[in-house]
């Protein structure tokens, strides 16, 4: 995973609540292999296209969307299923950060595991950002180290779990970190088996 | 020293260590893998890594399996490939598989408890958000994403930040016609679909103690729909009785040891919760969802909300958007909403008790609308057939299918057509969940059966009355 720190990019407003994982990637696309084409084309598919596949008037169909790296949405973004494919769809489309006042728990950890920053802002700050965007794409600056977001005149701070911040800043991978602790895990396992012998 | 909650006790028993930022590395007792795990196995393959403890993982085919036959003959090639990848991956890594043609096959969250794989005090994970179900037996169980599944396969552990603790206490008594599904929709509509985000939930109170184990499974299943990290119920004699004798349960001396431990798994009287929520059983009515999030739910005798009555413009817009998708009019009586089909199934409401509840409404009657019934497991199917429930459904005009996730998510091709309205015992009324453009109303099995008979959303209390 690429380390992340400060970056400026085009942000898209998505002023909706409860954008769940079934909307982020409808289930029927999940049998596709991720390689070689990625899942970007499936992102929010049924909001982007009508049933005959014609594009609808939707933010993600605008020309600016092709280069955008940030989404600003309302509460409970990524609620629902644990499908990591929802994150793959965002990442494969080019997104590096989603800003919202709350995230589905599993979605948020899936995001971090794929280098996508789930930036948690207050409801008020989220509305300020959306207002400043006035339903248009806008250039935004994300500073992970200092946990702040700037858009025009507005600067707001965001929250992030400290472990997740460290992982994103360094591009760390959990499996490597954990394997370094193998002796500790084995020691735990021995004690555990003694305490709960019926599980051994 | 302050007492501990049930959740704290189970968490602590699994904590290997903590990192400098306070995250815990947890030992995982059991991992359940369904077809969607192919991403995780691919990640292992990319790194050329083995499964560290193959004996701690069990593969179960459910999401993509056909429900009209137990073979892959008529299955679309891409769907078939996903099912076959589970077979290949489990075989390659020496992981046990409960596959399509296994008599124990079923939805992973039905099979776990049914086989005794789920036990009090275990830490269980699965790449599926409804893993919260298993907490009904006092396990700490939660859904994880594919990267985390790969981590569990590679290390048998998982990094987690400890959630806060919330207790939902329900005292009093449930009225006739009110079920665990209604309890869940009641608290979710009150707190919101993210109301329990960041919390581990414990359900307590006299109503919970009075619930059967199967009803508890339904309640804990829906914890995730309110954003909870997990949902737990302290094991009691009912729980122990339920687990005892199941294929994977401990036996003999080991069982005695296990039972002694299970009886220590309760919340100490002086333990503190970060949030307490209380509901009265008497105040809970049969509930249906009207919108596109489980929080958009109301008692069946209410009307569809009117965005004009909303003071917050964003809330009003949200309601308008939901009504538009659902094809409903503001102020319309919920009971006047007609349905096109019904679905009885899913890890939420397809256990034997659920099928009995639906069948008792349907017995000797004719449905006005078509629908399918997919038992939660092949074993549930066999038991239901032994009781003649299959005949009740078929005679009423519904299709009796094989077990799988089926129309809960439509991955196997069991879909609700665009614009059609489905009364469903499932857990998600998200846009497009049961198929592109499908309109889903969530409710209990008895309420779905009632809607099947009348062709519209129906108050089960009146029908019984
Ligand atoms: S029945 Fe539905 S909710 Fe349950 S595991 Fe299957 S798809 Fe998920």
UniProtKB/TrEMBL annotation, chain A:
EC identifiers of the protein: 4.2.1.33
GO biological process, one term: L-leucine biosynthetic process
Pathway entry: Amino-acid biosynthesis; L-leucine biosynthesis; L-leucine from 3-methyl-2-oxobutanoate: step 2/4
UniProt KW Magnesium keyword: no
Keyword Isomerase: no
Coiled-coil segments on the chain, per record: none
Annotated signal sequence range: none
Keywords tagged on the record: Amino-acid biosynthesis, Branched-chain amino acid biosynthesis, Leucine biosynthesis, Lyase
GO molecular function: 3-isopropylmalate dehydratase activity
Catalytic activity: (2R,3S)-3-isopropylmalate = (2S)-2-isopropylmalate
Domain Aconitase A/isopropylmalate dehydratase small subunit swivel intervals: 4-120
Enzyme class: lyase
A single Gene Ontology CC term: 3-isopropylmalate dehydratase complex
Domain of life: Bacteria
Record's subunit section: Heterodimer of LeuC and LeuD.
Homology family: Belongs to the LeuD family. LeuD type 1 subfamily.
Summary of the function given for this chain in its UniProt record: Catalyzes the isomerization between 2-isopropylmalate and 3-isopropylmalate, via the formation of 2-isopropylmaleate.
PANTHER family attached to this UniProt entry: 3-ISOPROPYLMALATE DEHYDRATASE SMALL SUBUNIT, 3-ISOPROPYLMALATE DEHYDRATASE SMALL SUBUNIT 2-RELATED-RELATED
Protein name per UniProt: 3-isopropylmalate dehydratase
TrEMBL record, chain B:
InterPro entries reported for this sequence: 3-IsopropMal_deHydase_lsu (IPR004430), Acnase/IPM_dHydase_lsu_aba_1/3 (IPR015931), Acoase/IPM_deHydtase_lsu_aba (IPR001030), Aconitase_4Fe-4S_BS (IPR018136), Aconitase_4Fe-4S_dom (IPR036008), IPM_dehydratase_rel_enz (IPR050067), IPMI_cat (IPR033941)
Biological or metabolic pathway of the protein: Amino-acid biosynthesis; L-leucine biosynthesis; L-leucine from 3-methyl-2-oxobutanoate: step 2/4
PROSITE patterns: ACONITASE_1 (PS00450), ACONITASE_2 (PS01244)
E.C. designation(s): 4.2.1.33
Cofactor note: Binds 1 [4Fe-4S] cluster per subunit.
Keyword 4Fe-4S: yes
Catalytic activity: (2R,3S)-3-isopropylmalate = (2S)-2-isopropylmalate
Keywords assigned: 4Fe-4S, Amino-acid biosynthesis, Branched-chain amino acid biosynthesis, Iron, Iron-sulfur, Leucine biosynthesis, Lyase, Metal-binding
Co-factor requirement: [4Fe-4S] cluster
Residues where [4Fe-4S] cluster binds: 347, 405, 408
BP term (GO), one: L-leucine biosynthetic process
Start and end residues of each Aconitase/3-isopropylmalate dehydratase large subunit alpha/beta/alpha domain: 8-455
Pfam families registered for this protein in UniProt: Aconitase
GO molecular function terms noted in the UniProt entry: 3-isopropylmalate dehydratase activity; 4 iron, 4 sulfur cluster binding; metal ion binding
Principal EC category: lyase
Family in the record: Belongs to the aconitase/IPM isomerase family. LeuC type 1 subfamily.
Function: Catalyzes the isomerization between 2-isopropylmalate and 3-isopropylmalate, via the formation of 2-isopropylmaleate.
Assembly and oligomerization: Heterodimer of LeuC and LeuD.
Name the record gives this protein: 3-isopropylmalate dehydratase large subunit
Organism taxonomic ancestry: Bacteria, Pseudomonadati, Pseudomonadota, Gammaproteobacteria, Pseudomonadales
Gene transcribed to yield this protein: leuC
């Amino acid at each position: 995973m690429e380390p992340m720190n400060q970056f400026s990019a085009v942000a898209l407003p998505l002023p909706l609540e409860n954008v769940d994982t079934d909307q982020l990637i409808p289930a029927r696309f999940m049998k596709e292999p991720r390689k070689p084409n990625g899942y970007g084309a499936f992102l929010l598919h049924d909001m982007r296209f009508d049933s005959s596949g014609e594009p609808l008037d939707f933010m993600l169909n605008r020309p600016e969307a092709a280069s955008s790296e940030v989404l600003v949405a309302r509460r409970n973004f990524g609620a629902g299923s644990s499908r990591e494919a929802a994150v793959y769809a965002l990442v494969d489309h080019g997104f590096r950060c989603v800003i919202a006042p709350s995230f589905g728990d599993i979605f948020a950890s899936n995001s971090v595991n794929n280098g996508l920053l789930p930036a948690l802002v207050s409801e008020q700050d989220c509305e300020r950002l959306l207002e400043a965007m006035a339903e248009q794409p806008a250039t935004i600056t994300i500073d992970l180290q200092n946990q702040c977001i700037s858009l025009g005149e507005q600067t707001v701070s965001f929250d992030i779990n400290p472990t997740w911040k460290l992982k994103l800043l360094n591009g760390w991978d959990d499996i490597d970190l954990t394997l370094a602790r193998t002796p500790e895990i084995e020691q735990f396992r021995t004690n555990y088996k003694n305490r709960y012998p019926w599980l051994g | 020293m302050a007492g501990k909650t049930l959740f704290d006790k189970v968490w602590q028993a699994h904590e290997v260590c903590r990192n400098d930022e306070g995250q815990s590395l947890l030992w995982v007792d059991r991992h359940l893998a369904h077809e969607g795990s192919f991403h995780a196995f691919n990640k292992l393959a990319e790194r050329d890594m083995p499964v560290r403890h193959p004996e701690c993982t069990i593969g179960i085919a459910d999401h993509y399996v056909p429900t009209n036959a137990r073979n892959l003959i008529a299955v679309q090639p891409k769907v078939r490939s996903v099912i076959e990848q589970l077979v290949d991956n489990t075989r390659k890594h020496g992981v046990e598989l409960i596959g399509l043609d296994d008599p124990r096959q079923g939805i992973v969250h039905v099979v776990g408890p049914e086989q005794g794989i789920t036990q009090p005090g275990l830490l269980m994970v699965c790449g599926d958000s409804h893993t919260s179900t298993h907490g009904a037996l006092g396990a700490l169980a939660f859904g994880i994403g594919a990267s985390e599944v790969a981590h569990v396969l590679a290390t048998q552990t998982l990094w987690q930040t400890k959630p806060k603790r919330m207790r939902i206490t329900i005292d009093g008594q449930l009225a006739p016609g009110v079920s665990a599904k209604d309890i869940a929709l009641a608290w979710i509509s009150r707190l919101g679909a993210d109301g329990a985000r960041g919390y581990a939930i414990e359900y307590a109170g006299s109503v919970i103690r009075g619930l059967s184990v199967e009803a508890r499974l339904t309640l804990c299943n829906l914890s995730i729909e309110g954003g909870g990290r997990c949902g737990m119920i302290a094991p009691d004699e009912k729980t122990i009785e339920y687990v005892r004798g199941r294929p994977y349960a401990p036996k003999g001396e080991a069982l005695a040891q296990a039972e002694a431990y299970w009886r220590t798994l309760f919340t100490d009287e002086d333990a503190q919760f970060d949030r307490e929520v209380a509901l009265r059983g008497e105040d809970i009515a049969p509930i249906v969802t009207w919108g596109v999030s489980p929080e958009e739910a109301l008692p069946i005798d209410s009307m569809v909300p009117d965005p004009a009555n909303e003071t917050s413009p964003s809330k009003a817009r949200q309601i308008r958007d939901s009504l538009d998708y659902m094809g409903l009019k503001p102020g319309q009586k919920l009971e006047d909403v007609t349905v096109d089909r019904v679905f009885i199934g899913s890890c939420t409401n397809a256990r034997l008790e659920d099928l009995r509840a639906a069948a008792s409404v349907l017995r000797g009657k004719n449905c006005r609308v078509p629908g399918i019934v997919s038992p939660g497991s092949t074993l549930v199917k066999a038991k239901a057939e032994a009781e003649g429930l299959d005949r009740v459904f078929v005679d009423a005009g519904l299709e009796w299918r094989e077990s799988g996730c089926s129309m809960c998510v439509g991955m196997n091709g069991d879909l609700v057509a665009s614009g059609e309205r489905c009364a469903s015992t499932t857990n998600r009324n998200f846009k497009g969940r049961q198929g592109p453009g499908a309109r889903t109303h969530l409710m209990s099995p008895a309420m779905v059966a009632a809607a099947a008979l009348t062709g519209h959303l129906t108050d089960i209390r009146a029908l019984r009355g």
